[in-house]
Amino acid sequence: MLVLGIGNVLWADEGFGVRAVEALHEGWGMPENVSLIDGGTQGMYLLDHVCSADRVLVLDAIDFKLAPGTLRVFRDDEVPVWSDTMMSLHQATFQELLSLARVRGRFPEKITLIGVQPDVLDDLGGSLSPLVRARLDEAVGLAVAELAAWGVTPTRRIEPAQEPLGADALRIEAYEAGRPSATEACRIGDARFMNQTRGSR
């Protein structure tokens, strides 16, 4: 059984899935038959993980044209209808990965997607917007409930997990402490970056 958070933490709300699986890991212990993975932007490199799991729970930011911050749950045949936001022309979407898993005849027996409608995507180096970050706890609760429906009993941790799920420097606290402010860096393509002003020589 696989719980997978996908997204790019460098693009604000695009990192929701990674932050959600991170929060799930910090707050809940899982049985040995459940793997939690920070999938980041690995794309097709996640194929073997998906193909080897009988049940897959995905957390991600997706665009379904609803109010920013809206959470939606998609199950089984509903999942392939969505398309992940491509942050790069070379980034394979998760939908394409699922299609390849189906072609291989190794599609999960059950798959659930918990997605949030992003509010901000164009803030390079930014963290989650307040609106989307406020939905993390609810997303984690939905994930725990879905796992329970699959017969899994996560255990609430008394203390947050000490071992990070991904790179320690990318944990949300470390990431936010180390990133420059919007006024100190060209995070949204300001005039300095776009060459719209001319400085004196």
Q: What's a quick, concise take on this entry?
A:
The chain has helices spanning 16-27, 47-51, 94-103, 130-133, 136-149, 172-178, 191-194; strands at residues 2-6, 28-29, 35-40, 55-61, 71-75, 110-116, 155-156. By secondary structure, the chain is an alpha/beta fold.
Report on this structure.
The chain has 201 residues and is of the alpha/beta class. The protein has a single domain, classed as 3-Layer(aba) Sandwich (Rossmann fold), CATH 3.40.50.1450. The strands form two sheets. A five-stranded mixed beta sheet has the order 3-1-4-6-5, with helices on one face. Strands 2-7 form a two-stranded antiparallel ribbon. α1 crosses α5. The longest helix has 14 residues. It starts with a strand and ends in a 7-residue tail after the last helix.
